[in-house]
Amino acid sequence: MNLWYGFVGSHPHLIRYFASPGGEPNTGYLERVRERFKRWILDTCRRPYDQQWLDYQQEIALRHTRAKKNQTDGAEETPEHIPLRYVIAFVYPITATIKQFLAKGGHATDEVEKMHDAWFKSVTLQVALWSQPYTKEGDF
Amino acid sequence: MNLWYGFVGSHPHLIRYFASPGGEPNTGYLERVRERFKRWILDTCRRPYDQQWLDYQQEIALRHTRAKKNQTDGAEETPEHIPLRYVIAFVYPITATIKQFLAKGGHATDEVEKMHDAWFKSVTLQVALWSQPYTKEGDF
Questions:
Q1: Angle, nearest 10°, between helix axes A2-9 and A27-46?
Q2: For the whole model, what pTM was predicted?
Q3: Longest dimension (CA), chain A
Q4: What's the pLDDT band for B30 if we cut at 50, 70, 90?
Q5: CA atoms of B99 and B129, how far apart (whole Å)
Q6: Cα–Cα distance between A60 and A126 in angstroms, integer?
Q7: Is B25 helix (H, G, I), strand (E, B) or coil?
Q8: Cβ contact (<8 Å) for B92 and A136?
Q9: Do B129 and A85 touch (CB under 8 A)?
Q10: Mutate to test the interface with A, among B131, B132, B137 (most CBs of A within 10 A)
Q11: Cα A39 → chain centroid
């Protein structure tokens, strides 16, 4: 969590989605997103893939687009949209960096491999779902 | 390569993109795609990320959409479009299954890990690029 926030914060082309046109990061917005991000990590590990989960996937998707990005947190001065290419590229860092944390729980190496594989599969599935509101009619 | 073709061939919802409305796979089309798929694996491992590479990424993207899917191989009776969600989901199997082949070359375990990581990063990047023709104006 802190690793990922550090990663976003250290890249100007990423932090700007949390910042005003003048470049000042909106700390209140960052904090609220951080709480949802923590929740998302736990949900990814624990939640069953039911209709409620699917509905919330759609909500997450919309909150990355101009349909809902700033509305939830009243962060009206930040950019209104996260480009889809960034959302897809996110599969890599969020998967490559999680392994060290999965390895900290005292599980056997092959269990850690299986958890990492399940994480990778779930993140890929979620990003596929999140692409829906970005996609042209009939192309999703 | 054969593993992936077997994977596609064993799933009716995947093989149908190579098949006529009656369900008969188009073997000529499958063979031509197989040759390009082989080329793509080598390109992913070897090619520098230059303008020519980027232009060909766009061509690959278009060949999954109604803009160009069947045109190249004259496979007019097969579905004209691969849904974006399938293209994104493809990151997982194509990455999870490559490792066993990377491990066959006699490299040390940490070298295999690095090659696998580079493969994963490249495939994710390419899928992000391939999403462009699917995406609404201004949302990519």
A1: 140
A2: 0.95
A3: 48
A4: very high
A5: 23
A6: 9
A7: strand
A8: no
A9: yes
A10: B131
A11: 11
pLDDT value of residue A6: 87
CA distance A136 to B101: 37
- Structure tokens given for B84: 């974006």
A1: pLDDT strictly greater than 80: no
The token duo for A109 is: 């190496």
Please name the amino acid found at residue B5.
Y
Q: Are A32 and A98 in contact (CB under 8 A)?
A: no
Query: Which residues in chain A have Cβ-Cβ distances shorter than 8 Å to B140?
Result: 83-85, 134
Do B4 and B94 form a contact (C-beta atoms < 8 A)?
yes
Q: Which residues of B touch A (CB under 8 A)?
A: 65, 81, 83-86, 88-89, 91-92, 95-96, 117, 120-121, 124-125, 127-129, 131-132, 134-136, 138-140
Structure tokens at A110: 């092959």
pLDDT tens readout for residues A107-129:
999 999 999 999 999 999 999 99
Q: Which two tokens stand for residue A4?
A: 């990922």
Q: What is the pLDDT of residues B66-125, one digit of tens each?
A: 999 999 898 989 999 999 999 999 999 999 999 999 999 999 999 999 999 999 999 999
pLDDT digits (tens, 9 = 90+) for A60-83: 999 999 999 999 898 989 999 999
Q: How far is B77 from chain A (nearest CA, A)?
A: 19
Which amino acid would we find at residue A126? Q
Give A25's strand partners.
A19
Q: Mutation target for B interface from A66, A121, A131: give the one with most B CBs within 10 A.
A: A131
